[in-house]
Every structure is written in C-alpha cells, then in structure tokens.
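=== RUN LOG ===
request id: a7f3
mode: sequence -> structure
chains: 1
length: 226
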Amino acid sequence: MLQNPFATDRNGVEWHHSAGLTPYPQAVAAMEARVARIAAREAAEAIWLLEHPALYTAGTSANPADLLAPGRFPVHQARRGGQYTYHGPGQRVIYVMLDLNARGRDVRCFVRQLETWVIATLAEFGIRGEIRTGRVGVWVARDDRPLTAGGARQEDKIAAIGIRLRKWISFHGISINVEPDLEHFAGIVPCGIAEHGVTSLVDLGLPVTMEDLDAALMRSFAGAFG
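=== RESULT ===
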C-alpha cells in the first residue's frame, strides 16, 4: 500500500488509489507507516483514495450511547478526532497525509482547508456544500424537503471530517458519500448529531461515479491547499 502513486502534483503530493475494499486495520497501519516516513523526510506527502467494507469507527469523543446497533458491523476505535462515523462501499474515503510543519501548524486553518476542498469539489457537480458552527463536516440544505416545524430548511450531511496529527503530520481525513447504503447510518448517531440526516450525491439525484469525484478532488485540491 502507498508505494506506487498514480499521480504527483506540482507541490510533490503523491496521489494513491486502492481498488476494491480496503480493510480498516490495514489502512490505519499503512497510514501510520507513511506518517512516520514523512516525519523522517523519507517520503512525500500523500492523498489516498479508497473504500472500506461496511464498518463503524469511534473517534476520541465518541459517546457509547450513540452506537445504536453494536452487533451490526465491526466497530473500530479510530483514535482520530470526532465521534461515530460509518464507512462502507459507495463512500469515497480520502486519507490526507500532509506535513503541517510546512503548512503553518494551524489545526483550525487546516480543517477549514479540508472543508473548502470538499465544498469546491461538490460545487463541480452543482451542489452547494455548507459548514455549520458546532457541526463538523459539510452539509446540504434540502430544498426538496418540507420545512421543519420551526420553519427552517432540512439539512443533511454529505461529508465527514476527522483528523489526527502525529509530529504535525496529518492522517485520517474525509469521507464523501457517493452512493453508499444510507440505511447503514441508522446503526449510529452520525457524529453525535441526531436531529439531521445523511445524504449522498446519488441521493441528491446526481449520477456521479467514484471516478468523477476523484477527478474533481484532484482539480480542486490546489485551490484549497496551494
């Protein structure tokens, strides 16, 4: 894993892709090995595009009560920031291994850059992704749904963000829902937020493929990170 990049951008960031479904423990081990090599200046920064089999991950802030179906899928302790998330087929996982020593050592700025990247990528498909104070991730206002009892638009989450830093090298990263089974999210309270739903590109009526999304991610990366 993470040995043969399919592309390298003008700033030397390597792009890697794994076909099929990558087991979660193998992915974490590969990320940790790459982070160590980046910290030792033995390897370039990297973006890794993959899919996982169906599973739940628990971040460092996960509330055990938010795991609603403990026996449904394997549960992995992720040791990244955040709460419970779902990964599975049809969801693009983007693991981001970047050296914040050379990027300002500003965690909040880095998270904003990740959000900006996702929003710019979604915009290529005509989707207005938005961020909300107190709600991590990227959200889509559902104009196709009835207003809430309070008269507000319903909002669904389309992308989750959760990172970890080691020696100021990032890992873990982003997941964007392309065409996962949205019912699988019912086994958790996603990111601890029960009052909003989850959506995907296909759920929004867009026949977007993983290849389409990957191309958009590559095009919009430089605009978010320079």
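=== NOTES ===
Helices lie at 24-39, 107-123, 210-225.
Residues 107-123 form the longest helix (17 residues).
=== END ===
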